[in-house]
Automatic annotation (TrEMBL):
InterPro entries: Spore_coat_CotH_CotH2/3/7 (IPR014867). This is Spore coat protein. The lineage of its organism: Bacteria, Bacillati, Bacillota, Bacilli, Bacillales. It comes from Priestia koreensis. Keywords: Capsid protein, Virion.
Length: 364
């Protein structure tokens, strides 16, 4: 299956109770605490901390894990353990990332695991590959910068989404994960040109900065899965080490497949086929890019984004995690909804697909 690691395993994390108290005293702190991890028959020293934004307030915490001794294991320096607590299916993030991979978009690998903390069961978690140097090495991609879009100012605009004013700097909204000299300046130059070039000038220059085909495939993925926040955050930018063109990488896709970030149901027509953000608007203003997007979207709507294609993936993943979900101490009151989610997701796919099939003609 796309984006999979090995079969579901047990991840045993040990943290001194004193350090757990420190984490709980300030859930917003990014200060790492020491711990030990038993994983795939290895016992290693790690650093750990809570991760995420609003999810840090939730009862079931998510974690960032960094290897300390050794610094690298199984080709990784770090990874993430997501509780997926507000997704009643616990599957949306993985389904989304695998879906992106299936349509030709660079996407993190993921797998569900059983987590214990100090030998106490914590339930089902999603282990997520970090988008860093190891991500590039695993895919034989040349070394290049990686910028995380950490808030809504990563909107490819000159205007701030957060304070409704002109941005003080065009690097707002981004956090540097891997840096190559000159790449942030190139990103700022790209954002400025996206907002100031005339249509014909933009059409002629944009492919010097952006892998347009990959971007349109990313746009197709986000429009199909309907991640409203994903247009201005929940992505990483990779600057290819040789071509110097930017690639979009999806991240944090639990608010998808018919539910928002709090788990509430979303109407299947909530996100328009044209998507959002300034860069998308500029690309779709160019006829040949708009037609290229329509062709990619139509292909996906007839192949990957269909109930027959997705049903086996949804039901097999549900079957795989079901025994562990049944024993998850945080999910005892939610089991009825969990069991209904495969049908809910498949129903959303059919309804969303019909919406997009009706709207794709507007692009032509």
């Amino acid at each position: 299956m796309e984006g999979s690691f090995m079969s579901m395993e047990v991840c045993q994390l040990y943290i001194n109770p004193r350090d757990i108290r420190l984490l709980k005293q300030n859930v917003w702190s990014d200060d790492l605490v020491p711990g030990q991890l038993k994983w795939r028959n290895k016992k290693v020293e790690v650093d750990a901390v809570y991760r995420g934004a609003h999810i840090r307030k939730l009862t079931k915490k998510s974690y960032y894990i960094a290897y300390y001794k050794p610094k690298r294991l199984f080709g990784e320096q770090e990874w993430h353990l997501n509780a997926e607590y507000e997704d009643p299916s616990l599957m949306r993030n993985k389904l989304s990332l695998d879906f992106f991979s299936s349509i030709g978009v660079l996407s993190p690998r993921s797998e569900h695991v059983d987590l214990t903390l100090n030998a106490r069961k914590q339930g089902v978690y999603l282990r997520l590959e970090s988008v860093n140097e190891d991500f590039l090495l695993a895919r034989n991609l040349p070394h290049g910068s990686i910028f995380y879009a950490v808030d809504a100012d990563a909107n490819f605009s000159l205007m701030s989404e957060l304070d409704d004013d002109v941005k003080k700097s065009l690097d707002l909204g981004y956090e540097t994960k891997v840096e190559v000299e000159g790449d942030m300046e190139r990103l700022q130059e790209f954002i400025y040109k996206t907002n100031t070039l005339k249509r014909d000038e933009f059409e002629n220059e944009v492919e010097n900065y952006l892998d347009v085909d990959q971007y349109l495939r990313w746009l197709t993925g986000i429009v199909c899965t309907q991640n409203y926040d994903g247009f201005v955050q929940n992505y990483a930018l990779y600057c290819h080490g040789e071509s110097k063109r930017f690639y979009m990488i999806p991240w944090d896709y639990d608010a998808t497949w018919g539910r928002d970030l709090t788990g509430k149901e979303m109407d299947p027509d909530y996100v328009r086929v044209e998507g959002f953000n300034t860069l998308t608007a500029r690309l779709l203003d160019v006829e040949r890019f708009r037609k290229q997007y329509a062709a990619i979207l139509t292909e996906v709507l007839h192949h990957q984004f269909t109930v027959p294609y997705m049903e086996e993936k949804v039901r097999s993943l549900y079957t795989k995690i079901k025994p562990s979900v049944m024993n998850d101490p945080f999910l005892k009151e939610r089991l009825d909804q969990f069991h209904k989610e495969p049908d809910f997701i498949l129903d959303f796919i059919e309804k969303r697909r019909q919406v997009l099939l009706n709207e794709v003609g507007n692009l032509l």
